[in-house]
Specification:
The protein contains 17 helices and no strands. Helix 1 crosses helix 8 and helix 2 packs antiparallel against helix 3. The radius of gyration is 22 Å and the shape is globular.
Length: 455
Amino acid sequence: MKNKLLFFTYAVVNTTLFLPYFLYLLIGNHYPTFLNGWFPLIIFYVCNLTGTFLVRSFGKKVSTRELLLFFLLLASVGSFLGVLVFVNALWLDLSAILLGLSCSLLLPLYLTIQYHERRLFHRSFSGKDYGLAFLTMLLFMPLFIFLVKVNLPELAFGLYGIAFLVSFFLLRDLPHYDHGNMPSTSFDSRFFLLFLVLTGITFAVKSLRVLTDNHFSLILITLIVILLIGVFYLIQHSAFEFSLPRYVYWFGFLQGMITNFFILFGTFYLFSLQKGVYLYSFIYLAYGVGIISSLFVGGKVLRLFPKVEKVTLCGIALLIGAGLIFIPYCIPISGFLIGFFSNLNSSLLNKVAYTETTGLKDNSLLVKNRWGKLGSIFQQSLLFLLFISFCYFFKIPILSLLETITGKSIAPHLTDIVFVLRMTGGVILFGIAVCYLITLFFYEKGLKATQKPDE
């Protein structure tokens, strides 16, 4: 990885955490797509969360290098298909599928390559490279938003496709890293079934917010419950081997819950407070800026607290950030903190996953990434189930809730709905906080047990 332009690839891959959401969120309402313009965003969201399980079902027959190059090409194709949206809105849906699958895996794949480079060739980015990547990412966000706002979404997709294609050509000369013999794993029906079940859950939950029929909503709620039972059954009856330290799985799962909680609950909360106009800046922009900032000043922030364990510091900051979401004008601060420390925490856990895995290093970050996705899916399912349960308990029409949290209209039960939202968010956040603090306690206890006593 000696090419001086590799900072560009680093920037492009990191934008997959937030930039496609901007594109599909802003573009969907301008075209006659299914589910009132939400369908492309829902499809992207579903594929982004579940794509890693689909890839895992086909086994680990190819290396991370080949997977990275393949998904860069797939992301490029998906972006270029978005250019055809002016011909037919269906191209936008197909674009969302391909780009969602690609974005599900690109970042962990690329980071694995970076770890290979450091371990095998002692090559890493310089401060100048990170600085150029930072400037590139800062340029991408306002440029793409501007193009969509001036009704040029085709150009935005075209530029994104070119960016992925350039990244492919910059990385195609990567060396073939020696990891020993690759396992000759075959198709795993359990992971494929898990992919189908999780896709069903995610699509049902995301579609629920735009439905207009109470009976159909109840059918979907029943489906979600059945699918959740199916997930737990699959996990319980699968032979599972921990190839990473246990706390990596739990922190990854809980972090996935927190980030999903902020984006989903924050969106609904803003609409219920009649502040939906601030959705892009308070939620997505704040979260994206937090991610970008952590890439370049995260290490300096950690060094400000030398006596606090790094993972513990990130965990406490994430919980504080999540708590601030209940104060309306602190929501952008909440988004920045969650974006900043979730990305920083991921970097710390990725390093542990790569260095301490008992399995194949080439696969370690993908394993950790899957648990984060699982946490996101679990949180959003729990959020909607509690929403609906509290609505029945307080006798609030489900349709009124759905219309309020999606900004369609102001329901006559607005005060009660805001109360239900706050109570639901409080219950979920309390549960996450308890689980996170317990995990931190055992994590700190384990660290002390492994440290040698001072002589």
